[in-house]
Design goal:
By secondary structure, this protein is an alpha+beta fold. It has five helices and 20 strands. The strands form four sheets. Strands 9, 10, 12, 14, 17, 19 and 20 form a seven-stranded antiparallel β-sheet that branches. The protein has a six-stranded mixed β-sheet with strand order 1-6-5-7-2-8. Strand 15 and strand 16 form a beta hairpin. The longest helix has 18 residues.
Amino acid sequence: MPWLTQLAEVARKTGFPVTEVGGWKSRGHGQQPSVEGVVCHHTAGFNDRHVVVNGRPGLDGPLSHIWLQHTGRIWVVAAGRCWHNAPSTSANHMNSTSIGIEAENDGRTAWPQVQLDSYHALCAELCREFDLPASRVRGHKEVNTGKVDPHSINMNTFRGRVAALIKNPEQPDKQEEDDVPEVISLGAGEDQSVPAGGEAAVRWHTEYADDPPGHGADGVAVLAKAGRWCIVDGLVKVRGLKPGAEIDVAWSRYDRDGKQFEDDAWRLSFRADVNGRVEQSVGGQFALNTKNQLRLRIINPTDAAAVVEKVTMAKIAMFNR
């Protein structure tokens, strides 16, 4: 069997968002000899796509064909053979005979429903593509002694859902026609510095909102007037880093007064190119309510100051929850 260069196309049939990790079509430990099964994993962490792509000490990447984010977004990692299940107790679920899906989860946290829905749909489409029955979808814990992933998932129930989707594919639930989102479009009107070993919240200088004002007077925090489900899409440009240096970009929730950091609703790591630049689209889906402020933070752990360029922008659609 050649490289599985159709995986992104197969993933898009689920109706869930898909991102292709750069170089995935030629990434793998050689070609994939065959596809006789699908192995479902959890990663044992969060924000760990880089581990699946690059590996860890003692085990080179790629570690699976797909990294399934907690938001339901499907990241296509590799088209070749991956080190995701060895030794296997099933001939249909070896590295050479199966596709591996690493789902973002620390092994303790409850699974978001959107991630489970994406997991089911992805397995169903893989089965359809490679002419596999739902019985060939197995948890890592079922085909490798001593493994516990994916945690807390009853694989018989999981396979039942996959079987139903193989027979009758579904698209993710659509918003009702009258559920029109509030949309806030934001722009940074000037360059902003991020200190070495520090962070900065992007200050927004321009705002276009359905129902203004959509953010705080200081131009940093986005506010919601009621419980909302946010879908964000932004373009972040940062310069001044050393080539290969990593920074994090996070949509972060604070308390309503903006004095207390609560958590990162969405956080991604990016590596600077040979010119010391990061230019990335940053999407995300998460909840926001009247108890929170929302800020876009740039976290710079390096020893060189960086600059968030004035062309950084974001669009936030807030749906009723």
